[in-house]
Amino acid sequence: MSLALPTQPGPIGIFDSGYGGLTILNEIQKALPGYDYIYLGDNARTPYGTRSFDIVYEFTLQAVRRLFELGCHLVILACNTASAKALRSIQTRDLPQLDPARRVLGVIRPTIEYVGHLTQSRHIGVLGTTGTIKSESYVLELHKLFPDIQVIGQACPMWVPLVEYNEAHGDGADYFVQKYIHTLLKQDDRIDTVILGCTHYPLLLPKIKQYMPADIAIVAQGELVAQSLKDYLRRHPEMDTRCTRGAHCTYYTTESEEKFAESASTFLKQNIEVHHIDLNEY
Ligand code: DGL
Fold first, then answer.
1. I need a surface site. Which of 20, 64, 151, 217 has the fewest CB within 10 A?
2. 246 CA to middle of ligand 1, Å?
3. What is the model's pTM?
């Protein structure tokens, strides 16, 4: 399907498979409050973490094309699974055809740059979805920049459903939070830094803190991705001028508008404007 892309400046697009990317959006809005944003959550097809490479790539590309069509020149994949499984193909294969001047950025690279300078023991743990951990993206990308770092990945397949079904603070969450942290740390007792490599996980932070030993640094991505975006826009004035500033955010979901507005409001603590969107034909 060929796209008629608007050429005038537009909002920054933030994409996630569901609600998790709201933790990134929140921090981006704090760091860059004047800009306009579109948040797109593929809630109808979440979770992505257990899906194949081809499917995550197909779904993510559909979302990127739609965000471009809605006027975005810059899209952030605020989803580790999409960043791990789709970003590279979109950057190298699709962007040159869609519009070589538009940009799609992920969350893994800024996280790695940050933790590489944080760890003292040079032993890092990564908690993520099954897809992110199996892709080995964190290991590969970390070793490109910091070959001396040992990385242990641990998939936490129950954590996204706990968040998506609003059970992050329930008693049932304790069992699964403790279980994956314990399994990770059992594999390497020198880990001093643990990456929350999924945008949903900061929503489980109170329980994660409860079960993580106090001397281990827990790295959530929101703030560091926001700082990295701020830095990117400073270094790329040609992109900065293509981002509109009206301090407005519009939300799109592939699920029902009411359901998204209700759940998202509890994360964002404000009332929001939500539109339904269908990605299947993109
Ligand atoms: N929020 C996504 C991530 O950061 C994954 C959630 C899902 O499995 O859809 O990896």
1. 217
2. 29
3. 0.93
